[in-house]
Structures are given as structure tokens and as C-alpha cells.
Recover the amino acids of this structure.
């Protein structure tokens, strides 16, 4: 485990605008679409923000080189690979960053698109509430995204929404912007699936606002490509009595980074974060999560699991902020890591800032290899060592994967993350 | 059942082994023929559990001398999984919990590995489910245990039943059961022992490693071996176990001390 040494972003400031960013800004789209204002704001901010470097604490272990090796332009779409049949009870929306994902779709009862002034007024609010608006991946999304999928949810929705992108083999950036507004007492299950087959960046920004007593069950499955990058920010603002349950699994990306950022505005809400990330080859799998309790009686259950093999690198930073007003907060964070090779590397760091005095905050981190006793037990039943190791690895992963929404099943989460299925 | 003409399944000769730098086995010899039930008794630390782990090929133990022939072939050169496929079974004193791996799948993969070792066809999931449901009855186990992770959250008795279920599925030629009776209440002991008796036959053999007589009240051994300080001190029939029960292990210590005063002849 690594002790926090907070270097300020100014340490890296003063760098000349990066050539990659400059090229990206030059190629940014224009037009009068719903995100025109967002782009207008993000462009100068991105130009002034230094490229994340190892000198910035939040990027200390995460080298951006695989990303800046990509073409600094929006993705040229390629014909989409065949997608598996969706499970009954789920509605698939395919996101390509250009065409309208709702075209020809009839949304389930209780779900409707948000547009016009209301969209303008709402967009970016959850990013601001979670302190995410100035994050580099969010700014990057801000200058490139031209389309937003914005939905309002009323009442319980039985259908699972599947939000799917496949960056394919094309080069460039696929920006996806999502907004969900869950009215009080509503409930929804969504599954994001982001795939790639080439040298491209999938940039995802999801904002979700949960009204009082609302429930969002949120899965994110992202099996990547050797040269592909993923930057995903999930910003969630919770009112009292709401429940957010996020389950994510990503791996196989040259650089894959998830940033779930949650805020319980008045506390008294329930948040669950379960995550699995894998890094093999020379891949980097990164999660920087942040949970802020702004009122009393909030709960967090967080389990973060990582597997590093080859020369892969896994990074986890789990920030939990419990200010004075957040009395009786109950937060538990556990980071469990499996190190499968001598050349792989795991950095894991809980980052708890606790000011309130009447709280329960537990955290723990383990890094281990496959247990010799478990391997021997399987071998003693006739199971070959390599197959035994696979079974144990699968067992390690399944604890998180089985929590994904059922709609994830046709995507074969484990096989896709381990690169075991034909595409 | 003792038949002098029955084929020898396991022949251990002068076996020595250590864990880290600590010698544990100091010359164990034992011959087991088809149809026989052997019991190895001894105090904690006498080396009886080490013997079972060495036979199964646990990587923490290093064999430093001696031979083990299994059906006439060198056992010690085989990887643990090959020993299992050839029909050697170790029932663990502390069965290992494996979170996230379904018991049903584990049992199926193990059963098929053993079947391949016997030259039989693999069972598909449906055929296997039929087999496992039938074998569950041997240990009176609830099918719900199949859906859980291997041994995870099982009570001591449930873990031991799961071991005997594995034994029932793997159809071993030589089953080494390490302290199978430990941690069992009397009902569980009866069920587990019933399973072992049910599976014992004229063509296979069982080696019970135990501390107490009570297991031998329900499984009658043909031979009882008393182990101390890494070797077999005395071998007898089932009455030897009763003698141990009555007299305790103190006489073993005395005998051992006498033995160590007069160094055994090398030959």
C-alpha cells in the first residue's frame, strides 16, 4: 500500500499546451447541437489544463502514453461487429456518438427523453455536484461529444436498458455522453457495455441524479482491445433514501480508467460499488473512485477486486470523504488483489478523510498470489495445475461478475474480459 | 478383508520426508493390498498427516528418501493431479474453501479428470447431474450444497461429507482419509463412516489416519499401525487400537525411547 503524498496539480502547470490536445481542439466538431454550449466551455478549460502526467497525484501510476498515441480526432465509424442477442426483458440502445440511439425505438413506460431548455439546465449539474466538471477525461469528453442520451425515469421500470458501444477497429475518439434523471421513488436497471477492437478511445461521461427513494442498479462491462483506451466517468448524485448500486468490470485495454464519483447530498442514502479490473500484457487498469457524504446516516459498501498478470498494472484509489455533518456514516471499503506474475504491479490506496466523530469506516487491502492450498486441493482431485489456476481465477472474478445485471450474460463477461471469445 | 494373494496397491518403503528443514518422516514402510482397510494412529506430530500429504504430493513436503510404488509404479514422480487420476484419493483433514467456484462444477471437472484417467468417456452436464444426485445419497447430503461455492461456509460436518461425496464420485483405488472423524458429532460420524464402508470393496483399499478409536468402532480396520516420531512403531490387528484406547499413548513413548537408545541396524 502506498501512503498518500499529495502533490498539487500546479506542480505540472505551466506546461505548454500539449500538441495532442491542440490537434484535438482543432478537430473538435462545431454545430448547434445540444452539446454546443458544453463544447464551448470545455475547449478553453482543456487547453489550459495540463495533460495528466505522473507528477499529478491522481495520475501518478497511470501513464497516458497509450492514449496520446491515438489519433486526436473523432472516430471514423467502421461497420459494427455483430452483437449478441439481447436478453428478453432488456432494451438495447446502440451508441455511436453520431446517430440518434432512440431512432425507431419505443422506450418502456416511465422512461422519456429530456430535451430543450430542460436538458441545457440539467446537463453538467451532477458533474459539478460531484466535483467532476474539471476532470481531464470529462473535459476531453466535453470537447468531442456532439450527442447526449438524456432520459428521465418515473416510477419503477421493469425493462433493463442496455447502452452499448463498439468502437470497432477505427482510429480516433468515440465520445459518449449520458444523463439519467431518476424522479423520486423511481427505479431503473441499466447496463453499459463498451467494446473496442482497435486503436481508439472510448470516452464515456454518465451523469445520474437520483431523487428521494429512487434506485439505480448500474452495470458497466468494458472488455477492451490491445491498443484501445477507455476513460469512463460515472457521476452520481443521491438524494435521501436513494440507492445506487454500481457493478463494473473492465480489462484488456491498453489504458482503461474508471472514475465513479458519488455524492450523497443530504446523506441517508445507500451506495454500493463493486468492481473488477484486469490487466495483462502491458495493460493499465485503473479505478479512481470518490464517495462524498454531505449529510448524516449514509452508507457505502465498496468491494474492489483486481487481477494483474504479465506486465500488467492495476491501480486503485478509493477516496471516501466524511465531513463533520456526516455523522453516523457507515462506510466499508475492501480492495482485494491477485498478483499472477512477478512482473505485474498493483498499486492500491484507500484515501479516507474523516472529520465526523461518530462514524464506522472500515477499509482494507490485500494483495496475494493464488493460494497454494487451494491449488493443491484442486490438483488432488485430478485437476491439472493450469486448469486449477483458471478455476481459481474465475472464482475470484465471479464474485463481482455475478452481480452484473442479468442482461450482461449474453456478453459472456468473464470470457470477454479474459479475451477468450471470438469476436 | 485380508487376502494374502490380493494385488498390492500401495507399497511404501523407508519413506523419509521433510517440511522446510524439519525432517518429519523418518523411514515409513507399509504395504496395502486390495480389499484392506488400514488405520494409522498416533499422537499429534507423529507424522501421520504428513504421510497422507506426501502420498498425495503436497508441494510443501520434500521426499528425502525411500520409495512408494502405486500398482507397481513409482508414485512420487507423478504430479498430484496424475496421482488422483490414477485413483489415489486424499480426504483432507481441513477441506479447503474455494470462493466463487461452484461445488457442482468442481465435482464435475474432478470426476471427468478421474474418468479420463480410467479411460472412460467424460460425462456431460446432464449425465453428471444424474450421477451426483445418486451419489449424494451415500452421504445423505442436501443437493443445495451443489449450488454453493466449494466448501464455502460449510460446517465441519458438511465439509467432511463433501469429501466423502468426492470419494464416491472419484471411485478411488486407494483412499487416504486424514482425520476424517475430527470435528464430527456422532451423527455426522456415522454418516461419514457409513459412506466409507459403503465405498470400501474387494478391489480398493482404505488408509484411515486417525487419532481416536471412535472412528474404528464404526469402520473395522484389518490392520492398525501406531506411528511415532515419523515411523511406524508397531503393527497389529484391530485389537491394537483398543489397546491404545485403554493404555493411552504413554507406552508408545516408552517404546520409542527404548528404540532410540538402541540404534536400529541398518540393512
Amino acid at each position: 500500500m502506498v501512503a498518500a503524498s499529495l502533490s498539487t496539480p500546479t506542480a505540472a502547470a505551466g506546461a505548454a499546451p500539449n500538441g495532442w490536445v491542440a490537434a484535438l481542439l482543432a478537430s473538435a466538431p462545431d454545430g448547434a447541437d445540444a452539446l454546443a454550449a458544453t463544447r464551448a466551455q470545455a475547449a478553453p478549460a482543456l487547453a489550459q489544463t495540463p495533460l495528466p502526467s505522473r507528477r499529478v497525484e491522481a495520475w501518478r501510476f497511470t501513464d497516458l502514453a497509450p492514449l496520446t498515441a491515438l489519433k486526436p480526432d473523432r472516430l471514423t465509424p467502421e461497420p459494427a461487429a455483430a452483437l449478441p442477442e439481447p436478453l428478453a426483458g432488456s432494451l438495447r440502445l446502440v451508441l455511436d456518438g453520431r446517430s440518434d440511439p432512440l431512432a425507431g425505438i419505443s422506450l418502456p413506460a416511465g422512461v422519456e427523453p429530456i430535451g430543450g431548455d430542460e436538458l441545457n439546465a440539467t446537463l453538467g449539474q451532477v458533474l459539478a455536484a460531484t466535483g467532476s466538471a474539471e476532470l481531464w477525461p470529462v473535459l476531453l469528453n466535453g470537447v468531442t461529444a456532439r450527442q447526449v442520451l438524456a432520459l428521465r425515469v418515473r416510477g419503477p421500470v421493469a425493462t433493463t436498458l442496455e447502452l452499448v458501444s463498439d468502437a470497432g477497429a477505427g482510429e480516433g475518439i468515440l465520445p459518449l455522453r449520458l444523463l439519467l434523471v431518476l424522479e423520486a421513488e423511481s427505479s431503473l436497471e441499466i447496463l453499459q457495455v463498451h467494446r473496442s477492437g482497435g486503436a481508439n478511445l472510448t470516452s464515456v461521461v454518465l451523469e445520474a441524479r437520483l431523487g428521494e427513494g429512487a434506485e439505480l442498479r448500474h452495470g458497466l462491462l468494458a472488455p477492451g482491445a490491445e491498443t484501445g483506451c477507455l476513460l469512463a466517468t460515472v457521476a452520481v448524485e443521491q438524494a435521501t433514501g436513494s440507492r445506487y448500486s454500481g457493478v463494473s468490470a473492465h480489462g484488456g485495454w491498453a489504458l482503461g480508467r474508471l472514475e465513479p464519483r458519488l455524492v450523497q447530498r443530504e446523506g441517508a442514502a445507500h451506495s454500493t460499488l463493486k468492481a473488477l479490473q484486469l490487466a495483462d500484457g502491458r495493460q493499465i487498469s485503473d479505478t479512481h473512485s470518490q464517495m462524498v457524504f454531505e449529510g448524516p446516516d449514509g452508507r457505502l459498501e465498496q468491494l474492489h477486486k483486481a487481477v494483474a498478470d504479465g506486465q500488467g498494472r492495476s491501480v486503485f484509489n478509493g477516496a471516501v470523504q466524511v465531513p463533520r455533518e456526516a455523522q453516523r456514516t457507515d462506510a466499508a471499503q475492501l480492495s482485494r488483489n491477485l498478483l499472477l506474475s512477478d512482473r505485474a504491479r498493483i498499486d492500491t490506496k484507500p484515501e479516507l478523510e474523516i472529520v465526523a466523530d461518530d462514524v464506522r469506516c472500515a477499509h482494507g487491502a490485500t494483495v496475494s498470489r493464488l493460494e497454494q492450498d487451494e491449488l493443491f486441493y484442486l490438483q488432488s482431485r485430478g485437476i491439472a495445475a493450469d486448469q486449477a489456476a483458471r478455476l481459481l481465477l474465475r472464482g475470484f472474478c465471479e464474485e463481482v461478475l455475478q452481480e452484473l445485471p442479468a442482461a450482461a450474460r449474453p456478453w459472456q463477461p468473464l470470457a470477454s474480459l479474459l479475451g477468450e471469445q471470438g469476436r | 478383508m485380508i487376502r494374502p494373494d490380493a494385488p498390492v496397491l500401495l507399497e511404501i518403503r523407508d519413506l523419509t520426508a521433510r517440511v522446510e528443514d524439519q525432517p518429519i518422516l523418518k523411514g515409513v514402510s507399509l504395504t496395502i493390498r486390495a480389499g484392506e482397510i488400514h488405520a494409522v494412529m498416533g499422537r499429534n506430530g507423529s507424522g501421520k498427516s504428513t504421510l497422507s500429504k506426501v502420498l498425495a504430493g503436497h508441494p510443501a513436503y520434500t521426499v528425502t528418501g525411500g520409495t512408494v510404488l502405486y500398482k507397481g509404479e513409482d508414485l512420487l514422480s507423478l504430479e498430484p493431479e496424475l496421482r488422483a487420476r490414477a485413483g489415489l484419493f486424499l480426504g483432507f483433514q481441513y477441506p479447503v474453501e474455494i470462493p466463487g467456484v461452484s461445488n457442482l462444477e468442481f465435482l464435475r471437472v474432478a470426476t471427468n479428470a478421474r474418468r479420463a484417467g480410467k479411460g472412460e468417456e467424460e460425462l456431460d452436464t446432464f449425465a453428471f447431474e444424474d450421477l451426483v444426485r445418486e451419489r449424494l445419497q451415500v452421504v445423505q447430503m442436501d443437493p443445495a450444497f451443489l449450488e454453493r461455492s466449494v466448501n464455502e461456509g460449510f460446517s465441519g460436518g458438511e465439509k467432511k461429507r463433501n469429501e466423502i461425496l468426492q470419494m464416491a464420485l472419484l471411485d478411488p483405488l486407494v483412499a487416504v482419509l486424514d482425520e476424517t472423524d475430527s470435528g464430527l458429532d456422532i451423527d455426522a460420524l456415522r454418516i461419514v463412516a457409513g459412506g466409507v464402508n459403503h465405498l470400501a470393496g474387494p478391489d480398493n483399499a482404505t488408509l484411515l489416519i486417525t487419532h481416536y478409536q471412535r472412528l474404528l468402532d464404526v469402520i473395522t480396520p484389518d490392520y492398525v499401525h501406531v506411528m511415532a516420531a515419523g515411523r511406524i512403531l508397531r503393527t497389529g490387528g484391530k485389537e491394537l487400537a483398543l489397546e491404545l484406547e485403554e493404555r493411552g499413548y504413554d507406552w508408545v513413548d516408552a517404546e520409542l525411547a527404548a528404540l532410540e537408545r538402541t540404534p536400529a541396524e541398518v540393512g
Remarks:
- The domain at 8-94+172-261 of chain B is CATH 3.40.50.300 (Rossmann fold).
